Amino acid sequence: MRVHVVSDVHGNSEDLEKAGAGADALICLGDLVLFLDYADHARGIFPDLFGVENADRLVELRTARRFEEARVFGDRLWAGIDRHAAIESAVRRQYAELFAAFPTPTYATYGNVDMPSLWPEYAQSGTTVLDGERAEIGGLVFGFVGGGLRTPMRTPYEVDDATYAAKIAALGEVDVLCTHIPPEVPDLCYDTVARRFERGSTALLEAIHTVRPKYALFGHVHQPLVRRMRIGATECVNVGHFASSGTPWALEW
């Protein structure tokens, strides 16, 4: 059995169409939407609306962790624009293209920049969406938890710690834990290019210690200090920034 795993697709529909080649199934750990590409400030919803110079400034403020200034700067740009309608329209265009690229079968959960309310409109019959739920694939039990935790970035699908912990607990015993964010381990949470720690989950780390799955798979941190480490019986793997690599991570058994 061979499964390909991707995360942080961020608009890369061209490579997504090929991501399932040679595999029995594809798993997607979220972040389909491209709001702003930190490597190429000309790509994404934000520069499409406000131009590259404003995207440069927003990235500069966020990278410097000047989140309140970034929020005020963004609010000035959005003044007089129906933010929700503009973003939803752009996300819908991206989702139509990205969901059409998923092979059959695909098992997917949300990333922190995704809009879960729209997924039922675009997920086709070959795509199973799971969040706080399990699926059996090739005789192994996979547990899925999507989204991220609250941050100053205020991305669309962030939940409080208790809600996230409840979703982790609902999975019970699984062979493979599939989440968008990593467990709360500094080496797994630090982004070497953004030069900051992303939020990881202590509830996920506790589940790794108690449930002892074979694997814990995640994304979210685009350039992690450490991509892979063993915690007890569990191999923890950042499956990679698919938007830039275009290459899925493979799990075989």
TrEMBL record:
<protein>
    <submittedName>
        <fullName>Metallophosphoesterase family protein</fullName>
    </submittedName>
</protein>
<dbReference type="Pfam" id="PF00149">
    <property type="entry name" value="Metallophos"/>
</dbReference>
<dbReference type="InterPro" id="IPR051693">
    <property type="entry name" value="UPF0046_metallophosphoest"/>
</dbReference>
<dbReference type="InterPro" id="IPR004843">
    <property type="entry name" value="Calcineurin-like_PHP"/>
</dbReference>
<feature type="domain" description="Calcineurin-like phosphoesterase">
    <location>
        <begin position="1"/>
        <end position="224"/>
    </location>
</feature>
